[in-house]
Amino acid sequence: LAIPSSPVVLTASVVPAATAASFAAVVPVPVSAVPAAGVTYQITSATTVYAEPGSATAQAVATFLATQLRRSTGYALPVADAPSSTPGDGISLLLSGAPATVGPEGYQLTVAANTVAIRALQPAGLFRGLQTLRQLLPPEADATTVQAGPWPVPGGTIVDYPRFAYRGMMLDVARHFFPVATVQRLIDQIALYKINTLHLHLSDDQGWRIAIDSWPNLAAYGGSTAVGGDPGGSYTKADYQAIVAYAAARYITVVPEIDMPGHTNAALASYAQLNCNGVAPKLYTGTSVGFSSLCVPLELTYTFVDDVIRELSAITPGPYAHIGGDEAASTPAADYTYFMNRAQNIVAAHGKTAIGWHDIVKSDELPSTVAQFWGTTSSDSNVAAAAANGTKVLMSPANLAYLDMKYVRKTKLGQTWAGLIEVDKAYSWNPGAYLTGVGEASVLGVEGPLWTETIRTAADIDYMAFPRLPALAELGWSPWSTHNWTAFAGRLGAQGPRWKVMGVNYYHSPKITWP
Ligand code: TNX
Predict the structure, then answer these.
(1) Measured by CB atoms within 10 angstroms of the end CB, which terminus of the chain is less buried, N or C?
(2) What is the DSSP string of 120-132?
C-alpha cells in the first residue's frame, strides 16, 4: 500500500482493515460503543490536537497525547485551543458537551471522518477517554520510535464511565525495592487500563522505603536490606514526589502504606527505643510474617506514628493513608484494637482517610476507614458487619485478585498460598456481589496487590500483572451486564501486539488466543 505523503485524509476504502484496531478490542469494555460502518478518521501530518480553550489541564492532556503520537508517527501534531463553536478538523479534547451521566471520570468519544472529539466533565474524563483512543489506534502508535503508519481510528461513538470509584494496583516496594523509573513505567502501563490508584506498600519487616526526616535511620538503616539479601534502597522525599507527580499527570492517586503494628521489623531494627525491651532486633531478609510488632504500651510509639504519618501526609496530595494492620500475630488482641484506634485518629488528625487491611474491622474503625478485603473465602462475618455499619470495602480477595499468585503450578515467579490464578479465574468474579453481606453500594472498588517476595525486576512485575491486571481493571470499570469471558478473552488478546510494542513482558496465557 502506498501511503500518500501529502496531508490528505485517507478514506476507509484505502485503509486496509487489518491495520485498524476495533471498537470490539477496547479493555475495559466501554459502557456503550456504537461503531459507524465505513467511517474512519486518519491521523496525518496535518492533524492538530485541540484542547478546551483556557483550560490548562485540558491542554496538558492534549500535550500528553501529542507527545506520544509525535514519537510514533513523526508528525508535528501541534496543540492549539479548540475553535469556540464546533471542533475543527483534528482531535479535540473538550470540557463541554459531555452527557451528565459520565460523571467525574467518564467521557464521550466520537470518531468521524474529519474529527475525533473526546468530551468530558472533568480533565480526568478526558484522560480516560484518551486511553480508549490509544486502544483504537494501531499498536504501533505506542512505539517510542517513528513507525510507518497509517494511523486509522475506526469511526463511531462511545459513552463510557466507571462502575467503581477506586480501581487500583498495589506494588510492594518493601520486600524488594524498585527504583522510581520502574514505578513510573508501571504507572504508564496501568494508566492504559483506566486504573486510577497506585498503592505503594512502603514498609515491612524486610525494608523501610521512604525517607522520614524526624527518624532518618528508618530509610538509612531500615532501608538497607531486602528479601534474600538482595540490594535494599529507599525513596527520598523528592523521589516519592516524582512518583506522585508522574501518577497525578495520569490521573492516578498514590496511596502510601506504612504497615503497622506488625510487619515492622525494619523500623524496630532502626530504633532500639521503639522496642518494648529497648533492644533493636537484627535486620530481616527472610519471608516469614507475623513475628514483629510495634510496642503498643509505649508512648514513644505514637510519637513515631504521628511523625511518620505527618511527614508522609504532607507529600501525599491524595485523600488516603494506608496503615496496614494485617497479620499482627505478635500483637495481643486488646493491644491491636487500642493501637489501630489511635493510628486511625492520627491519620484523621493529618487530614487523611485511613485504609487498613480488613483485619482492621476487629478494632473500632472510624466511620470513614476503608477495609481492604484480602481473604480467601467469600464470607467474612466481621467484614459483613462492618459493611452493614457503613464501612466501605476495597476488594482484593487473595485467591482472585492477588497478582503474586502463580498462574499455573509451573509459573517460576510467585506464591501459591491463596491458590493458582489463571487469567480466566482473575476475571471470574463480581466485586459487587462476591462477599456475603457486602453489596455493590458497600464496595469502594477493586485492587490487585503485587507482593514482591519473589519479584525482583520490572520484567517480573510485567509478567505477574499482565494480563491479570487488565482483567481486574475491567471488573472495576465495566458494567456487570457486559461481563462475558469469551468476549473479554478476544479483547484481551488484542492487547498482546500493543504490549509487544511497549516492551511489556506479559504472560502468554494459553487461555487467550494471542494474535
Ligand atoms: C500476605 S496479604 C500478606 C503479605 C504477603 C502476602 C504474600 C497481606 C495483607 N499480607 O505480607 O506479602 O501474603 O502473598
Answers:
(1) N
(2) -SSHHHHHHHHHH
